[in-house]
Amino acid sequence: MTDLPPPESPAPAPPPTGVTEPGKDRLADGEWHRLHPATPLLRGGIAFVAILGVIVVNLRDIVIDIVFGGPDFEEDYNPVTFILEHDFLGWVILAIIGGLLLTIAGFWLSWRMHTFRITDQLVEVRSGILFRTHRRGRLDRIQGINIVHPFLARLVGAAKLEVSVAGEDANIPLAYLGSSAADELRREILLLASGTRQTDATAPAAASSGSLVSDRVNDLLAPELDPTLAPPESVVKIHPGRLVGSLLLSVSTIVAIAVVAVLITFGVRLGSGVVVLGLIPAVIGYASFYFSRITRSLRYSIASTPDGVRVGFGLLSTSNDTLPPGRIHAVMVSQPLLWRLTGWWEIKINRASTSSAQGAAGQANTTILPVGTMADVRKVLELVLPGMLDDLDLVERSIVSRGDDDFTTSPRRAAIVRWFSWRRNGFTQTSNAVLLRRGAIWRDLVVVPKARMQSIALTRGPLGRRLRVARVRVHTVAGPISASVGAIDQNDAVEFFESLAREAVAAGQADRSHRWREEGTP
Questions:
Q1: What is the crossing angle of helices 39-68 and 89-113, to 10°?
Q2: What is the DSSP string of 187-232?
Q3: Is the pLDDT of residue 204 over 80?
Q4: HSE-up of 176 (CA within 13 Å, CB side)?
Q5: How far apart are the C-alpha atoms of 449 and 508, rounded to whole Å?
Q6: CB neighbours (10 Å) of residue 301?
Q7: Where does the pLDDT of residue 160 fall: very low under 50, low under 70, confident under 90, or very high at 90 and above?
Q8: pLDDT band at 469, cuts 50/70/90?
């Protein structure tokens, strides 16, 4: 299959001008801007807290002895005692203050040297003090924009913004910006990436109450998803009870419980409590792991916005990711064995880039729906593949079908390699997408938009030639989804390969979803 012609290279950006202080103008005006003034504190604050903790721990006994009296220093001789005995305390304090001032100066200088600008075609970042770095990301290659609000950053009204660009290690982070500035900058970048001219991308900034404390309180208490951003009927949420249940019914949890039960039984039979006591750290570790996954996924929501699908979650630290139209290359709906009791499903996607931030439940950000019902699956598919699926009822039927439907499935002779799933294993097409169905015990359905296909391959091994079956693989960008189906009758596979190759080229040439607001785009 022939590759689509690459988009035209952007024109060179205008020469740099002066640097604008943050908050004084629009951030997508083509001028250089600096990050949030609290960036040095947020970047170095954690390190300072750690150093302060070490100092406090070492000085604790000395301070107690000085204030309340205690044993002689010689009994517990340490470097702090040496400093006090030789009257070096003043010099040490001066050295600490000097080091602290140098560190603060370094963070401040790094902030001054870290600038960015947004033009009609590029996102640019310059950073570094001794070793300068200049990164550029093309707007037509943007795959999504992620905004993370760490808890400490929320206290000062700051947020991390990361522009996900197609390619390995191509993302452009901006840490930190003002919360409202980050939201506005995301909106403007997506408008420019959609084909809207910069003069059309202006909008009034969000209003402020004028009180810093009031603004911070409102930010902490505000819902994760602003109700004005998406119609209520398009919002998919996860109930906390369902999230907890999905974790308890996961294979890893069942295996962990079985291992603990075996070890406890083994320890009781030997009459040794050492084995049982040794499980306490493991139990604490598992508890903290599940607690973290649950709290990260609270207030989870998926919604449709004018500039793509928005996925948000988090309680104390929040995160929301916006995926523009045309950036999702494959979707997989799957159901682990234990979830069949509750009718829950999971949805993953392939995208051309990945954010450094984790997704909900501590999973990769390619898991767009950690757990949901069939109704949730229908809504999410409508959001992530708008206009790609002609009949959602077909998708729903095909997921749970035993094979008596419109899919082209494996022949009976393929049962030697597909013991339980040969009746379900197969493929079908719609006008805009290809559907691949696999598995009978662990069921999944893969949907690939024809316009997002990179190539298609047909392979047969020695056993496949003997059974007259073949494997068809649809190549997309790298991700958790492998869009392939095997054990297909060789004649059906050849016909599928040839028709899909022709239709994918035509779909790619006609696709304009990556410029979704451009004039003339349907």
A1: 170
A2: HHHHHHHTT--GGG---PPPP--S-HHHHHHHHHHS-SS-TTTS-G
A3: no
A4: 24
A5: 10
A6: 18
A7: very high
A8: very high
Closest to 178 measured CA to CA, from 145, 143, 219, 140:
219
- pTM (2 decimals)? 0.79
State how far the alpha carbon of 506 is from the alpha carbons of 432, 457, 501, in Å.
10, 18, 9
Closest Cα partner for 326 from 377, 387, 393, 236? 387
Is beta strand 236-237 parallel, antiparallel or unpaired with respect to 301-305? antiparallel
- Residue type for 350, please? N
Per-residue pLDDT averaged across 56-80, rounded? 56
Q: Count H helices, E strands: the chain?
A: 13, 22
How far is Cα 302 from Cα 290, in angstroms, rounded to an integer?
A: 22
Phi, psi angles (nearest 5°) of residue 484: -145, 155
Q: What gap in Å lies between CA 335 and CA 322, rounded to an integer? A: 25
Q: Give yes or no for a cis peptide into 300 (omega within 30° of 0).
A: no
Please check whether residue 366 is in contact with residue 349, taking contact to mean a CB–CB distance below 8 angstroms.
yes
CA atoms within 13 A on the CB side of 228: 2
Task: Return the residue matching tokens 């919360």.
Answer: 179
Query: Nearest to residue 126, comparing CAs of 245, 4, 31, 260?
Result: 31
**Average pLDDT of the chain, as a whole number:** 79
The answer to whether the beta carbons of residues 146 and 330 sit under 8 Å apart is no
CA distances to 19, 141, 175, 195 from 122, in Å? 17, 10, 18, 13
Beta bridge partners of 237: 301
Query: What CA–CA distance (Å, rounded) separates 364 from 357?
Result: 8
Amino acid at 281: P
Shortest CA distance to 444 belongs to which of 382, 398, 393?
A: 398
Q: What is the DSSP string of 315-382?
A: SSSEEEEEE-TT-EEEEEEEE-GGGGGTT-EEEEEEES---SS--GGG--TTEEEEEE-HHHHHHHHH
* CA–CA separation, 436 and 390 (whole Å): 16
Are the CB atoms for 161 and 186 separated by under 8 Å? yes
Residue reference for tokens 């603990």: 260
Q: What is the 3-state secondary structure (H, E, C) of 356-373?
A: CCCCHHHCCCCEEEEEEC
- Rounded to whole angstroms, the Cα distance separating 432 from 385 reads 10
Q: Determine contact, residues 493/458, Cβ cutoff 8 Å.
A: yes
419-424 long-range contacts, Cβ below 8 Å, gap at least 24?
A: 422/487
Which residues does 320 contact at the CB level (< 8 Å), separation at least 6? Answer: 146, 147, 224, 225, 310, 311, 312, 313
